Amino acid sequence: MHDTTRYFYRPVVLLFGAISAVLTLYVVWLTLHNISLLRPGRESFIGLDNYLRLLTDGRAINALGRTVLFTVAATAAELVIGLAISLLVDRDFRGKRIVRAILLVPIVMTPVVVGLTWRFLLNPTNGMMNYALSIVGLGPVDWLGDPNVALFSLLLADIWQWTPFVVLLAMASLESLPEDPQNAARVDGAREWQVLWHITLPALKRALLVVALIRAIDAVKAFDIFYIMTRGGPALSTETLNLYGYISAFTNFDISYSLTIAMVLTILTNVALLLLYNLAFRAPKQGQA
Amino acid sequence: MKRRDFIALALALSSSVAMPAFAEDAAQPYKGAHLAVLMEGHPTTDGIQALLPEFTKATGIEVDLEVVPESDITAKMLLEFSSGSGRYDVVQNNIIYIPGFVQAGYIVPLDDLAAKLPDNYDKADFVPGYLNTSIVDGKLYGLPVYGESTFLMYRKDLFEEYGLTPPKTFTEVAEAAKTIKEKSNGEIAGITMRGAQGIQNVYVWAGWLWGYGGQFITEDGKSALGSDEAAASLDAYARVLRDYGPVGVANFGWEENRVLFQQGKAGMTMDATVNGAFNEDPSISSVVGKVGYTPVPVETDKLKGGSSSLAVHSLYIAEASQQKEAAWLFASWATAKEQQIKSFGIAPNSGVTSQAALNSEEFNKRYGAFKDAMLASIARGNPQYLPTVEAANEIINNAGIAVSKALAGSASAKDALAEANAANDAALSR
């Protein structure tokens, strides 16, 4: 069959494909050298040395672990809390539109402002969090200065900012669900939690998986609040792979190694997301077929 | 008005306007030049910025002054330097980068320019210790904008109340810190210093490293952070901050540390001499007149270098600049004594590099309380205080991680430094 529409979409696909392929190949080419901003004209081809160096670089491997921990914890917490809130507000009540507007506030805030605000809140000597703790006789906690706590403080800020995003999308999906299956189940004598577990949640599954994917991609790339709140410290306890790449480039001026880190992170992220995507969207279809 | 009168008037007017303009053109050979200058966010930069219109008026040279935080400035200029873009004509940075920049061919020697356009440049007026840091192989590469050293600041009132004497060794620092914290029932921290990972904590800890007889790099170019002296110094630094320091010290940079001391919440601090200007400013400080200043202590007689820093930030002219002579005029004007003396009225600035400014009435009035201690610290300031090799930034970063780990207790001082030592050796051999 001859489909003439292909003359319209193929050039566009080709153009985008070519651009990303050229850029990727250029980055790969740069990672095979030892380019440093401090040694102009003295770079040479070093093959896979940068990749081998990354494999044995304990700092990079720890940073990767933190990236995974942060991504999984942030996505999971935002999903659970966001879903719980959206189920609670999934009914008609006065002021629902105001609630929805307020939910938007953290999402539209610039990350730099979010980071600074949380830094003030978490200030160990005159921050609001420690004041609140002192009222109930706890603390003081050194939120950003204690290496065992700092990553969780950053999680707190990320969860605060992005849970509303999950709430908004889940609310929209809930509102578009047909009510008949739920009512039918209730007529058949199902309790509310059974309705929720067996009817509502399975119907929401698709929407939630998409939300989880978007949040996971964002969490892997998270940089702003890390940079503003801790810059990877104290004692490297909040240095993700993203941040390590930044430091390699802009503190150590080791451009090739920094790109190697970015390249490996990109590959790992793509593989992980492709697996997730297949899990979410392909499997049910095959099951149905 | 008759037509003839009008023409006469117009002629008279135009000639009165035109004549001086011709004269100015002769005196302003660089009129119309447009310089791009990159400088650090710092009180001296505020002064230069405020005085810029005078420079433009005198020379006809327009200046675009871009101001960024010190922590970001090196990356910003290196990106432009390495692409040879010529985006910046004049840049400011710490002198520790000079060897790397010279080797890479990013900045140019200034001697020929100084000989050709000597009007603003008075070599003899610069503090010699400052100007010498900008000379490599006998060639001048930078003009010092500001300079400073480090010293120990202590609360005279508390020391008197608790019967303490100004510490001469780091052991005495720890003892004094203990006394202050205990006798004030924990109300006042014994000592506060910078703990934030990176150049922040390294800038202050380096004083302890040298004061314990350690160093960053050996004579044959190997990392020296694995030594027992280094471990002892870091152990002492972390211990005194953990035991007698303020809450949250792990994230203290220059600002947090300075503010805490200004508020009277700490008995001692060790930091840049410019902090004296803030301590003695009644509009922001509650400890005016209560602070004593004394050199950074030493723990041993066998020093490889002094424990006071010598930090100088100079202006350099980029190799890729297309208007080096106009750039020189700006750099020599910005660092001349006239501008330095005027800057006192603009922002708190005790880091002047001109001897005339240092000895001015204005300086003595504002900063007399710590002038002697500052000059003594500068005189014994260690130009190798921070490593000055090509990989300086990476070495400082690795050392900062070690200090942060020891401070947090997530590794012993010896183990943390062994790790930094290996990373630094790798960076030095790359």
UniProtKB/TrEMBL annotation, chain A:
<dbReference type="GO" id="GO:0055085">
    <property type="term" value="P:transmembrane transport"/>
</dbReference>
<feature type="transmembrane region" description="Helical">
    <location>
        <begin position="195"/>
        <end position="217"/>
    </location>
</feature>
<keyword id="KW-0813">Transport</keyword>
<keyword id="KW-0472">Membrane</keyword>
<keyword id="KW-1003">Cell membrane</keyword>
<keyword id="KW-1133">Transmembrane helix</keyword>
<feature type="transmembrane region" description="Helical">
    <location>
        <begin position="68"/>
        <end position="89"/>
    </location>
</feature>
<feature type="transmembrane region" description="Helical">
    <location>
        <begin position="12"/>
        <end position="32"/>
    </location>
</feature>
<feature type="transmembrane region" description="Helical">
    <location>
        <begin position="149"/>
        <end position="174"/>
    </location>
</feature>
<feature type="transmembrane region" description="Helical">
    <location>
        <begin position="101"/>
        <end position="121"/>
    </location>
</feature>
<dbReference type="InterPro" id="IPR000515">
    <property type="entry name" value="MetI-like"/>
</dbReference>
<dbReference type="InterPro" id="IPR035906">
    <property type="entry name" value="MetI-like_sf"/>
</dbReference>
<keyword id="KW-0812">Transmembrane</keyword>
<feature type="domain" description="ABC transmembrane type-1">
    <location>
        <begin position="64"/>
        <end position="276"/>
    </location>
</feature>
<protein>
    <submittedName>
        <fullName>Carbohydrate ABC transporter membrane protein 1, CUT1 family</fullName>
    </submittedName>
</protein>
<comment type="similarity">
    <text>Belongs to the binding-protein-dependent transport system permease family.</text>
</comment>
<dbReference type="Pfam" id="PF00528">
    <property type="entry name" value="BPD_transp_1"/>
</dbReference>
<feature type="transmembrane region" description="Helical">
    <location>
        <begin position="255"/>
        <end position="277"/>
    </location>
</feature>
<dbReference type="GO" id="GO:0005886">
    <property type="term" value="C:plasma membrane"/>
</dbReference>
UniProtKB/TrEMBL annotation, chain B:
<dbReference type="GO" id="GO:0042597">
    <property type="term" value="C:periplasmic space"/>
</dbReference>
<dbReference type="InterPro" id="IPR050490">
    <property type="entry name" value="Bact_solute-bd_prot1"/>
</dbReference>
<feature type="signal peptide">
    <location>
        <begin position="1"/>
        <end position="23"/>
    </location>
</feature>
<keyword id="KW-0732">Signal</keyword>
<keyword id="KW-0574">Periplasm</keyword>
<comment type="similarity">
    <text>Belongs to the bacterial solute-binding protein 1 family.</text>
</comment>
<protein>
    <submittedName>
        <fullName>Carbohydrate ABC transporter substrate-binding protein, CUT1 family</fullName>
    </submittedName>
</protein>
<dbReference type="InterPro" id="IPR006059">
    <property type="entry name" value="SBP"/>
</dbReference>
<dbReference type="Pfam" id="PF01547">
    <property type="entry name" value="SBP_bac_1"/>
</dbReference>
